[in-house]
Amino acid sequence: MLASLHTTLRRMLYERGKIDPGQVDVRFDRPTRQWVDALTAPTLNLFLYEIEENPDFRNMRPRVIKTGALATTHMPPARIDLRYIVAAFSSNIADEQQLLWRTLAVLLKHPALPDELVAEEVRALDVSLLTKITRLGDGRPSLDTWQAFDVSPRPALFYTVTAPLDPERVIESPLVLTGVTRFLRTSPEDEAASRGLTRDRAIEIAASIHVGGVVRTRQGVPLAGVAVTVEGRAMDPLITNQEGRFVLGSQRPGPLVLRAVLPGREPIVVSLVVPAETYDVVVD
To answer: Which residue from 81, 86, 122, 235 has the least number of CB within 10 angstroms?
Structure first.
């Protein structure tokens, strides 16, 4: 759901804001000092900093859906406020301000996310995704936020999307995480400790990182049916789903080269380094 929502927001900003994806990145990352230093292009970042149920939309009356002689009941989805800090990052302050001003215009123009940009799985819930710019004192974090990120203060928008959450659908869908698995071996000190001679210790000898990503256009449109493989590895292709998502097995830290094959197009080769902020494959 969140991945679909972020795709919708990215597309809305690019398409409705007439922002060139070749000049500006739209991301959803935690804006730390290391992250800012690694940027290579002007970037608009939407950081999700708070998630909270909106009680104003709480509805405990089940919906009855009839199919022929059968009737089933479904509880309406909960409504969740997703709060974002929206900020622009560039080496030029004037560019940051211009980009944020354009973004403000786009967000104000759309008090609800456009239906045609919303993923089918969200449209199926038959609930509009309402949005608003948060006012001062209404859930707005202080300027200490930038200090916590070790980032210089800058103007920002505080943007809320009220999205539906169907607990049954969320729990039934597979959970895909990017994580790190570390393999440990027993040190001589451990063996001694087992005899009560000293405290436990372990030596890390390797780590593997479970990664996943999305194949998408620069405008944020996910691409389904793309075959993804790892160069130099014998494996069956991973086919992206309707959200453009693919999931790799455990990967060792270091260089990783992905090969993406779109129907009727030349293969795309993307070089990455694990771990990375993202493993998305962007198609021009």
So the answer is: 235
Residues carrying CATH 3.30.2000, the chain: 2-172
Average pLDDT of adjacent 10-residue blocks, the chain of 284 residues: 89 94 93 93 96 87 66 78 96 96 97 92 86 73 80 93 83 55 53 50 54 85 90 88 83 87 89 82 86
List helix spans (H) across the chain: 2-16, 33-37, 93-109, 120-123, 144-149, 167-172, 188-194
Q: Are 261 and 237 in contact (CB under 8 A)?
A: yes
Q: What letter does residue 159 receive in the DSSP assignment?
A: E
Dump the DSSP string for 11-56. HHHHHHTT--TTT-EEE-----HHHHHT--S-EEEEEEEEEEE-GG
CATH topology of domain 209-283: Immunoglobulin-like (2.60.40)
Element (H, E) at 77: none
Distance CA 257, CA 17 (A): 33
- Pull the structure tokens for residue 227: 């075959």
- Return residue ranges of the chain for CATH 2.60.40.1120: 209-283
Whole-angstrom distance, CA of residue 72 vs CA of residue 87 = 45
In angstroms, the CA 11 to CA 121 distance is 17
**Residues whose CB falls within 8 Å of the CB of residue 58, separated by 6 or more in sequence, listed in order:** 78, 79
Q: Return the pLDDT at 235.
A: 86
